Amino acid sequence: MPRSVNSVASRARRKKVMKMAKGYFGRRKNVWTVAKNAVEKGLSYSYRDRRNKKRNFRSLWIQRINAGARQHGLSYSAFMGLLKKEGIELNRKVLADLAMNHPEAFKAIVNRVKK
User: Fold this and answer.
1) How confident is the model at residue 1 (pLDDT cuts 50, 70, 90)?
2) Coil, helix or strand for 22?
3) CATH architecture assignment, domain 7-114
4) 81 within 8 A of 54, measured Cβ to Cβ
5) Do the Cβ atoms of 103 and 68 come closer than 8 Å?
6) CA dist., res. 28 & res. 12, Å (int)
7) CA 20 to CA 23: how far, in whole Å?
8) Contact yes or no for 16/9 (Cβ under 8 A)
9) Angstrom distances, CA of residue 97 to CA of 4, 27, 46, 83, 90
10) 35, 16, 19: which is closest to 27 by C-alpha?
């Protein structure tokens, strides 16, 4: 009996990877072994960087809050400590947006915390 290789599934799998390699430069877009390696590498980078993006945004929010707080005579850590003590539960994303786009609202929060 001949060996069954299920070439339909194999072809579909290769087509899927080659479709993901569209737009790559040189042999990465049309040579199977090179494209497969490039796509796997790209997928691992995208998985890693979805997590790094969260770190980067948190860091950016902290910098913006720090800049806003320092304009009112507080450091970031002092401001966040006073927020917790006061029981104001605004996350860093919202605080950063207020500090950057609505300085009067951020100032009101700082004044409430400073009392």
Assistant:
1) confident
2) coil
3) Orthogonal Bundle (1.10)
4) no
5) yes
6) 18
7) 8
8) no
9) 60, 45, 27, 16, 11
10) 35
